[in-house]
Amino acid sequence: MNATALRAGVVIAGLLIAWRIVQVNVVLYDENGQARLPATASTGVNAPTLDRELLHRVLDRNPGHVVALLNLAREHERAGDAQKARQAYDAAYALAPLHRDVLGAVADYYLRLGSNAEAIALLDRLVDAYPDARALAFPVLGKLLLAHAQPAAWSAIASRKAAWIGPFIELSCRQGMDPAALVPLLLSRVADRRAAADEIGCIVDHLRDADRWAEAYQVWLNTLLRERLGDVGFVYNGSFEFASSGVGFDWRLSRARERDSGHVVETPQAAGVTGQRALRVSFNGKRQAGIPVMQYMALEPGRYEMSGLARPQSITAGRGVQWTLRCVKHGQVQPALANSERFVGSSEWRRFSFEVAVPNDCHGQLLQLEPLGLADGTVYLAGTAWFDDLVLRRLR
Amino acid sequence: MKTRHLAIAAGFIAAAATAIAPAQTTREGVAQLKGVKGNVLLSRQTGLAAGGEAARLTEHTRVITTANSEVVVVYDNGCEVRLKENQRFEVEVDKPCAALIAQAQSVLVEPAGTALGAAPVFFWVVLPAVGVSTVGANVLLGPGPSPQTLSLSPS
Prior knowledge:
heterodimer, A: alpha+beta, 5-stranded antiparallel sheet, 13 helices, 42% helix, B: alpha+beta, 3 helices, 9 strands, elongated, disordered C terminus
């Protein structure tokens, strides 16, 4: 009995010791057996100090321990020994030039030194190789870009066609960075046909919402294919011959589900119209939500005539639809400057037109097809409206 | 005979006048494009359209260049206005050539450089392994083991 109890006690004690060993090792060492060492680059005045002796002992055992090297570099830097700090950072970089922490910590070191070109080059490699580091590094890169720090370094990144530039443009734009600073990078991607619609859309939309219409329009023009620049017009693609991109100053067709919006917008092939395609908006008789079709414009102040072809088919329920042109200021749509006739009932293709006077303080506009009464409350609409050949002509 | 010669001469003059008239029509405007490189756009009655070499320009026509494009607007009086990429110019008359040249402006405004001031703070933190917070170095050293207590070998 005593022997059994003793054996049980020994086993329990052994298990406890084993558990403690495991516990301690999990806390002290990582899964690769390397001692856990703290952050390398948080070198503010409150950053913790490390025992350089300990770091040297770690490095004596494992001279390739780059984290220890980075910590040692930081401690030398903190102690004001710039030469030893530099040597340790250089050693870490020489040992592991693609190590995530080396790239990050050495970039941070260069930033503290004011060596922005070197920092940008390292951050470039960091965000290229480690996409998870982008959330941390992109704001820093954004500040450097805004400060025009090292344009040559940025040119090198652009010419290298780094894959992270697209996400950088989009994230920085969405986080409110001045879009104009991102335009050169975007245009370099446009030239390589690598720019995504989201990048272009974000920059153009932010410029437009800031009432920088001329810049917004110019950026968008730069993104058009050469063959589409032959006839841009005031109304872009007013014949609906080309698929809408929904970006910039192109048509924006409602993508909402029919059951949510009450309508479907398409540009199918159609008989009896100029070209091969036309705009078709089908209303399902249910409650209408949102605008089916719209296009932003950047018209100069002056008088214009809007014209087009229309063919309403069995538009019975509701008061019909009409085209309106409204000013847009600070991202807000203003009261209508002008509107077309109402399209109700049924007819063959017929031409319509209306005049618009764009005032001097109206630098951006929105052309849209509106169900009548939508702003006043609930609107039900049934039937189909066809449109083609929308043209805006300047009147002298 | 003399009457016949006069009639023939009158016929030639009439024919010449007819031939010249269309040429004068195509010369409408006050300037034209020269050295078109890349995408150059002109404002027309229905909006922007591509502008080719020697396109004639009337007063108030806007000339717009896109990226990697350039063009020279040559006035009939000899004044030349050179547009580089992403610039805009409105054809005007009754202005000195120097004023017209100065009128070519970049559409894309370069943002004013923001002074970096203090170096951007990066707060680079080594990603810790299992069970340790990623918040920052202080956190790493807080509840965790003091680095001074680290032994040199996991074994």
